[in-house]
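Worked example 4.2. Below are the chains of a multi-component assembly; read each line carefully before continuing.
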Amino acid sequence: MVSIEVEGKTPEEAIQKALEVLDAPREKVKVEILEEGSKGLFGMIGSKQAKVKATLLEITEPDVGRSQASEFSPRPTVSATKPPRPITDARALAALGDTPGKETLEELLRLMGFKAEITQRLDGDKIILSVHAGEDSNILIGRRGKNLNGLQYVVNRICARKNENTQPVVIDIEGYRERREEALEALAQRLAAKAKSSHREVETEPLSAAERRLIHMALKDDAEVRTQSRGEGPYKNVVIRPRSR
Amino acid sequence: MKELVEYIAKALVDHPEAVQVNVVEGGKTKVLELKVHPDDMGQVIGKHGRTAKSIRTLLNAAATKDNIRVVLEIVE
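Applying the procedure described above to all two chains together yields the following C-alpha cells:
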C-alpha cells in the first residue's frame, strides 16, 4: 500500500496534487483529510495549508474509494463494467520514486563519509529531502546552516545539469529549516522594534534569498517599517527602515 | 575526499573525461588539486565562486568528521 501526504491551499488542491503524484484516477485513491487548512487573516497571517493523506488502493474495491470520494469529486466513481486497471506498488513508487535529488544526495553523503537515512516528501509543490544522520547531524548542518545550504546548492546544481526541468529540492536535517524559520521570524520582529524605537535603519547579517524572503514576509504587514534587500551576491542582506509618517 | 570532488566535478562539467584530482598530502592538511577542461572552469567555480565555495564547504564538513584539514585548489 502506498501512502503519501500532500499539502495544498485547499483540500481539493492537495488531493489534485496527490493524484498527479500517484498518477492514479480519483477512484483508485483513498483520501484522508488531515488538515482542512484555513485562509487566515487577509489570506496571509495565520494561514494554514490543507493536508491530505492519499493512499493508493492496490486492489480495486470501488466501495472503499467512494466513501470519501463523493465529498470532493464530482466525477462518478468506478463503474462495475470498467476493467480494473492493475496498480502495483512499483508503479506508484516509480511515480513518487527516488527523485534524482535523493539519489544525488545519497551519493554525496556516502562520499563525504556520512551514514544517513533520507526520506522524501512533498510539501505543496516542493520536494523536501529529510536527512537523519544521528550525532553527525550538527556537522552536516554547519554554522548557521552553511553546510546544509552548500549541500542543497550542489545537489540542485547537479540535478539541473542532468535535466533542465528538474524541480529544485529542499534539504532539511532534523527539522533545522523549521527552527531557522522561526528564529528568523523572531529576529525580524526584534529588528523591526529596534528600528521603530531608534528611528534608524537596522540591518541583518547576510542572508540567502530564501531567508531574506522570510524577513520581508514577516514584516510585510507592519505599516511602520519598510524592508529592502541591499548588497550584492553572497553579502546581500535586509535593511529595515522605520517608515516616516 | 578525492572521490567526492571527482563526483561533483564530473557531474557539473561538459567534459567529465578531462576531470583530474591530485592529492597532495601534507601532515594534517590535505591539498586537493582539481583540474578540469578550460571550457569547464566556469562550471566548477560558479557565479561569485558559489559552486567552488560550496564544494569547499562540503569538503570541510567531511574533513571535520575525519579531524583533518582539506584545501581545494582549482588549477588551470
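Take a moment to check your reading of the output against the notes. Chain B has one domain: 2-75. The mean pLDDT of chain B is 93.
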